[in-house]
Write a structure and sequence with these properties.
single chain; 280 residues; alpha+beta; eleven-stranded antiparallel sheet; two-stranded antiparallel ribbon; 6 helices
Length: 280
């Protein structure tokens, strides 16, 4: 019997190892919803809120146009709209520069209010004053501490303050803030066009005379304003004015307006009640 040949057992083939495919990172979920920026935090009030002037006899004697705007009036928006429509209507009888200015108040007053609130000022009244030289100011009453006031306006409006004889003047050295700031005696603050603070102080600094000839109080625009009955906006215009394009500058009788959301009253004099011109 023959012997069987001895052969080694074949080695099984190694298993095939497949390369691991790279795993792609998860893609962010796309969304079409806009992300709203956070609402800016309004600063705490600088002094009491809802302050207003007791009277307006202190307004400069040189002022030819003065107005009082009650910011806390429920019909303020409608009132400013009615005023703008009156200033743009034919036959309004207002000086051309004044009518143009009044036509902007429907957006300018809210912008001014928001600017004041950025620094913590929340007055109940804004007072407008301008003169024949076209310088104007928006003023409000503030009993906030002087040092805190300076700190607030420098932080909020990027202005730099300096003390002068008549008060404090603050300006923006970069020119980005469109106003100069005045802090005056009598708890008065004002915004005037940038670069005009010194000129306004030079002409408006002295208080108006308390009496005219014979001892009677001098009739200034500010005193006429106080004679008007209450309204959301009261306005007095004195002096010389260009009333129509191409016409000569003429002297005219004082004009007074009382404006509410219902329309514009045009009294013949500060003591009269006037007739109502409905707002469209």
């Amino acid at each position: 019997m023959g012997l069987a040949a001895c052969h080694p057992r074949p080695t099984p083939p190694a298993p095939t190892v497949r390369p691991t495919e790279p795993v792609e990172p998860a893609k962010p979920v796309e969304t079409t919803q806009a992300v709203e920026p956070p609402e800016p935090v309004e600063p705490a009030p600088c002094g009491p809120i809802d302050e207003r002037f007791d009277d307006h006899a202190w307004l400069p004697a040189a002022a030819t146009t003065v107005a009082s705007v009650q910011l806390d009036a429920a019909d303020l928006e409608a009132t400013l709209r009615a005023l703008g429509e009156h200033a743009r209507a034919p036959g309004h009888g207002l000086a051309i520069p004044l009518s143009f200015s009044l036509g902007q108040w429907s957006w300018q007053v809210p912008v001014l209010t928001a600017t004041l609130r950025r620094a913590g000022f929340r007055p109940a009244e804004l007072v407008f004053s301008s003169d024949d030289a076209s310088d104007h100011a928006w003023m409000w009453r503030s009993t906030c501490d002087l040092d805190e006031t300076i700190e607030r306006i420098e932080a909020a409006w990027s202005v730099r303050s300096r003390r002068v004889v008549d008060g404090v003047v603050a300006t923006d050295p970069t020119g980005a803030f469109p106003y100069d700031v005045l802090m005056l005696s009598g708890e008065r603050m004002a915004l005037v066009p940038a670069g005009r603070a010194s000129a306004v102080l030079a002409r408006w600094g002295p208080a108006p005379p308390s009496a005219g000839l014979g001892g009677a109080p001098r009739s200034t625009a500010g005193r006429r304003l106080d004679d008007l009955q209450p309204a959301t906006v009261r306005l007095v215009f004195l002096g010389r004015a260009l009333l129509e394009p191409g016409a000569a500058t003429t002297e005219h009788a004082p004009q007074t307006l009382r404006i509410t959301g219902e329309g514009v009253r045009v009294p013949p004099d500060p003591a009269a009640s006037g007739s109502l011109t409905p707002a469209p």
